[in-house]
Each structure stands twice: as structure tokens, then as C-alpha cells.
């Protein structure tokens, strides 16, 4: 998974353009989970599931989003419903939060490059991964997302330690 993740995001853009739950871009959905896997690895896992399911996938590290498009055989009449959903990852911990103002401060402190940054020391960042329906009925989306959310690749990435 790590090799494919590096192929998908060779410039580490997922991490560079990562949103934090404090940025008010986080959408609370029924299909979300905590993980310590970086976004590029989650994208690689979702890509593997999409390939197996015959779905089309678009991975955009600069936008920190993965779009999945699939056809769901939803009725007995032979018609398929087009379903599109997104997978987006957000930082959770306050220690990892870097506001736009903090970026300006880092540019001023370039003479202290010999000191490791806090993010480098704490390699294990906690994320929340969220799936959101963009197109398709609720029932068709439910049928499609269950195949992804319940896949062994996603289940292996889930962090169950903090579940009460």
C-alpha cells in the first residue's frame, strides 16, 4: 500500500493541502472513521476497492479528495443508477493544526531548519476519513458505500481504540 500511495502522491500534496476539522470544511456523515494512515494510503486503499468493484476513481492530492463513480444495480428492471461519492481526510489533533498565519511564521523562521518540526517528531497523526454522497439516491449510495466501507482494506485502516 505504501508504494502505491507514494506513486499516487509523489510530492506529498495530500499532507501539504490537508484540512483540519477546525477549518469548518468537515462534514459529519454516517460513513466516517478514525485512522492513523496518511491520506495517500487511504486513497490507495480506496483505489484497490474501486478496481475490484469496477468503479471509476479520480484521486486529487492537491484538493485532498478522492472521487468514486460507480453504477449500482438497484432495481429488478435491469437499470443501473449512477452514484458518485467522495472520500476526504481531515486532521483531528490540535497539535497538528497549522493555520494560514502559522505558515507565514514558518517562512520567517527558515534559519532554524536544523531543528526538527513537531510534525516530524510525531509521525503518527490522527485523521478522520469521511465519505459523502454527491450524486445518486440514498438507497443506491447506501448499497455502494457498504461495499467500500466494509472492505478489508478500509477495515484494516480503522482505529477502534477510542470508541466508547
Uncertain stretches of 5 or more adjacent residues: 104-122
Tally of DSSP β-strands: 6
Main beta sheet, described?
A: 6 strands, mixed
- Average pLDDT, all residues: 80
- Which quaternary structure do these chains form? single chain
* Principal-axes shape call: globular
Helical residues, percent: 25-40%
Question: In terms of structural class, how would the helical and strand content be classed?
Answer: alpha+beta
Please compute the radius of gyration using only Cα atoms.
18 Å
Q: Order of SSEs, N→C?
A: HHEEHEEEHHEHH
> What fraction strand?
25-35%
End-to-end Cα distance: 29 Å
Number of helices: 7
Would you give an account of this structure?
Helix 1 (2-8) packs across helix 3. The chain has helices at residues 2-8, 13-16, 39-53, 100-108, 118-121, 138-149, 152-157, and strands spanning 19-20, 32-35, 56-60, 65-73, 80-91, 127-135. Strands 1, 2, 3, 4, 5 and 6 form a six-stranded mixed sheet that branches. A hairpin with a 4-residue loop joins strand 3 and strand 4. It starts with a helix and ends in a 7-residue tail after the last helix. Mean pLDDT is 80; it is low at 104-122. By secondary structure, the chain is an alpha+beta fold. It has seven helices and six strands, in the order ααββαβββααβαα. The protein is globular and about 55 Å long.
Amino acid at each position: 500500500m505504501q508504494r502505491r500511495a507514494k506513486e499516487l502522491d509523489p510530492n506529498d500534496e495530500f499532507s501539504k493541502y490537508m484540512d483540519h476539522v477546525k477549518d469548518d470544511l468537515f462534514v459529519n456523515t454516517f460513513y466516517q472513521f478514525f485512522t492513523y494512515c496518511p491520506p495517500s494510503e487511504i486513497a490507495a486503499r480506496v483505489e484497490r476497492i474501486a478496481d475490484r468493484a469496477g468503479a471509476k476513481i479520480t484521486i486529487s492530492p492537491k484538493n485532498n479528495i478522492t472521487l468514486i463513480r460507480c453504477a449500482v444495480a438497484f432495481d429488478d428492471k435491469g437499470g443501473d443508477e449512477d452514484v458518485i461519492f467522495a472520500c476526504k481526510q481531515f486532521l483531528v489533533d490540535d497539535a497538528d493544526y497549522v493555520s494560514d498565519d502559522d505558515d507565514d511564521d514558518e517562512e520567517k523562521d527558515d534559519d532554524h531548519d536544523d531543528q526538527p518540526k513537531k510534525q516530524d517528531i510525531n509521525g503518527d497523526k490522527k485523521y478522520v476519513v469521511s465519505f459523502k454522497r454527491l450524486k445518486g439516491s440514498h438507497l443506491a449510495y447506501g448499497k455502494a458505500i457498504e461495499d467500500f466501507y466494509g472492505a478489508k482494506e478500509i477495515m484494516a485502516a480503522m482505529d477502534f481504540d477510542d470508541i466508547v
